[in-house]
Amino acid sequence: MSDRVPVRDDLGDVVPYGAPQLDVPVRLNTNETAEPPPPAFLEAVADGVRELQLHRYPDRPAAALRAAIAGVEGLTPDRVWAANGSNEILLQLFQAYGGPGRRLLLFRPGYSAHPLIARVANTDAVEHDLPEDFRLTPDVASEAVRRHRPHLVCIANPNNPSGVPTELDAVRALHDAGDALVVLDEAYVEFGGVSARELLDELPRLVVSRTFSKAYRLAGLRLGYLLAHDWVVDDLRKVRLPYHLDAVKQVAGLAALRMRDDLLEHVPRVCAERDRVAGALRQLGDVHVWPSTGNFLLFRTEVPGVFERLLERGVLVRDFSTRPRLEGCLRVTVGTPYENDVFLEALRAVVAD
Ligand SMILES: Cc1ncc(COP(=O)(O)O)c(C=O)c1O
After folding, report:
1. What is the pLDDT of residues 271-318, one digit of tens each?
2. How far is the CA of 218 from the centre of ligand 1 (A)?
3. Residue 131 contacts residue 160 (beta carbons within 8 Å)
4. Which atom of ligand 1 is nearest to the CA of 219?
């Protein structure tokens, strides 16, 4: 007799997702936004919550929220789906179109949660190496699809951790080289680059996933959505849990869309700071910075122990230095001008040391 039940065999060696949540003065490691949403937004959410009947289940299809998203995106509501963060959108997609015997094509380096979510959904993931500049070209895209013959393809636009945008010709190539569902994870697209949204009518197997966690400044809300063809939305109903989207979240999402301009108002400031920090990093000798259209920057340095030495100075960034393809790489989220200055000063001191 054993006191514990072994976890599913295929999950034995899974390392849980775990970007550190440390209480340090300057936290620039999870690509959140530095400025909180305006107080008027919290008032609007509170007003909406007061109207709720919390003894009742929420509206199961989240019809009002999906209609509001559809209005913003210029689509009909039957082409919009919402879930608890874009991570859950991806999980539902992988559950619906992946599973035993199905293959997911990812690109490396990419967002570390993609292979993890695939594992949870019992889906085989293959990771195809991107070229040195981490740009997916149409040739690389077609070659990868022809070689791996996936049922699903997923890449972030812009990509994480590189910040490099995924070009629309490469999206077309991913789609046209095979018959996979092509998922563009556009968690950061409001910060720059071109959205694959404009290809939705051209490419019948394209899905675009978005989030309220980044440019909308609502990482704590856990709300994401997808734009697709109506058959995808129909299929996702088969894997979603009953009443998966709670009533408070639906109200908050509606308030966010009503106050969209106020919530997104900080985006130009973030982009200007990103470009300023990138310029300053390029001034440091021996630091390579990838061009980013996200709210973060990936940089490589040969100097050892940079992550720990920044942390000693109260600055937390994301350490990718031991990951394949990312040797010596760190990722920094764009913070407030003050936080960015603290980061740059600390890095200058570490590099000069
Ligand atoms: C590429 C990418 N997709 C999705 C997410 C997660 O988004 P959400 O908070 O909507 O689950 C992140 C978060 O860092 C991300 O980098």
Report:
1. 999 999 999 999 998 899 999 999 999 999 999 999 999 999 999 999
2. 12
3. no
4. 9
Considering the domain boundaries, does residue 214 fall inside one?
A: yes
For the entire predicted model, the pTM comes to 0.96
Angle (CA) 46-51-56 rounded to 5° is 115
pLDDT higher than threshold 90 for residue 250? yes
**Same domain as 138, residue 29:** no
Q: Is 80 exceeded by the pLDDT of residue 18?
A: no
User: Which protein residues are within 6 Å of ligand 1, measured from CB?
Assistant: 31, 85-87, 111, 156, 160, 185, 187, 211, 213, 219, 224
What does the pLDDT read at residue 222? Answer: 98
Q: What percent of the chain has pLDDT over 70?
A: 100
Distance 89 CA to ligand 1 centre (A): 10
Mutate which of 111, 162, 292, 298 for ligand 1? The one with the most ligand atoms within 8 Å of its CB, which is: 111
Q: Which domain holds residue 107?
A: 41-259
Last residue of a domain, one of 228, 259, 290: 259
Longest dimension (CA), the chain: 63
DSSP output for 102-146: -EEEEEES--THHHHHHHHTT-EEEEEEPPTT----HHHHHHHHH
CA of 187 to the centre of ligand 1 (A): 6
C-alpha span between 294 and 168 (Å, rounded): 17
Atom number, ligand 1, closest to the C-alpha of residue 31: 14
Indicate the number of domains in the chain.
2
Residue 31 CA to residue 217 CA, distance in Å, equals 10
Based on the domain organization, do 112 and 237 belong to the same domain?
yes
Domain final residue, candidates 196, 227, 259: 259
- Cα 331 to averaged position of ligand 1 atoms, centre (Å): 15
For residue 224, the ligand 1 atom closest to its alpha carbon is 10
